[in-house]
Structure formats: C-alpha cells, structure tokens
Amino acid sequence: MRSSWPAAASARSDTTFVAAVNGPAAGVGLAFALACDVIVVSERAQVVPAFGKIGLVSEVGTSWLLTRRLCYQRAYGQFVCGRPLSGAEAVEAGLANELVDHDGLLPAALRWCERVTRLPDHVPVMTKTILRQAADLSWEQAIAMEEFAEPMCFTTEGHRAGVAALR
Q1: Residues 50 and 72 in one domain
Q2: Selection from 44, 35, 26, 18 nearest residue 99 by Cα
Q3: Parallel, antiparallel, or unpaired: how do β-strands 18-21 and 24-26 relate?
Q4: Which CATH number do you get for residue 24?
Q5: How many domains is the chain built from?
Q6: DSSP letters of 89-112?
Q7: Do residues 13 and 40 touch, judged by C-beta distance below 8 A?
Q8: How far is CA 58 from CA 13, 32, 45, 107, in A?
C-alpha cells in the first residue's frame, strides 16, 4: 500500500492533476499517470503494461484504472501481451487526452491547467467527484447525483458570470 498512496491521493483529491508523459510510463509510473485527471503524451511517450512479461501482476491500482478505460478484454490483452502503446495509440485507445510534439508537451499540459483554472472553483471539484463516482453507479444513481449537485451550481457567482457572458 505504501507505493500506491500518490495515485490514491490524486484520485481522491479535489485538485485536478495533469500528467505530461514524455517517455515510457510503466509500472508505478503508469499507475500514477492513469490516476491523473488529464493525460497529455508526446510522440515519444509509451504506455507499457508489461507486468506479465516480467512475471508480475498489475500494481498500484493499474488493473482498476485500465479495466475502466479499456474494458476487461482489452485490459487483459494488454497485461498478457505487454506490448508498449505509442502516444498516438494511447490517445486512440482512450488512455490519454492529447498527443503533442515532444517540445510542445509542457506547454500543452500547462494549457490544460489554464483551462481548469479559468473555470469557476466549484466546477472541477464537483465534476471530478461526479465522474469518478459515476463509473460505479447505475444510470439512475448517476442522474440522482447530478440532480443533487446541479442546483448548488445555480447559486454560485461562477454560474451567474458564465450566463452573463453568453448574453
């Protein structure tokens, strides 16, 4: 459990975490990247779920994270084959948000941070909470959670300012 605390902390935190992957992400590094809210990869990035090839099973929540992004069969295939995915393949598979040139990696990650900071404070916090929980809820439960949260948003200055900006 000691090596899993950074991944668990980012997943449980209200703070938005942006991963900038510039090379191979394997083992614990893969788990830390997958636990982030946004993943930006360069053309040099590789997602390497090679646990089986070295006689190991997944660690630090990687089984949970990959299964939710890829579905059971694709995650199992990745663990069994252990073939590294390029940055482009990671984006295509839904494991990363954006593929950029290597030199543009940090600026692209910072643009994601800027997008988040331009939102009203409550939006990233509430969105992260809702989306993280929705993966394990029924459709009806997800709607109930949204119907509980959304009225709170109508009372915020961020909502009023956003609506006013549309006029």
Answers
A1: yes
A2: 44
A3: unpaired
A4: 3.90.226.10
A5: 2
A6: HHHHHTS-SEEE-GGGHHHHHHHH
A7: no
A8: 23, 13, 20, 31
pLDDT in tens, 33-46: 999 999 999 999 99
Alpha carbons within 13 A on the beta-carbon side of 114: 6
pTM of the model: 0.86
Looking at the structure, do residues 129 and 111 belong to the same domain, yes or no?
A: no
- Residue-wise pLDDT for 62-103, tens only, equals 888 888 889 899 999 988 888 999 999 999 999 999 999 999
Strand bridging mode 98-100 / 46-48: unpaired
Q: What is the largest CA-CA distance in the chain?
A: 60
Kindly report the number of other CB atoms within 10 A of residue 40's CB atom.
Answer: 28
Residue that the structure tokens 């929705």 belong to: 134
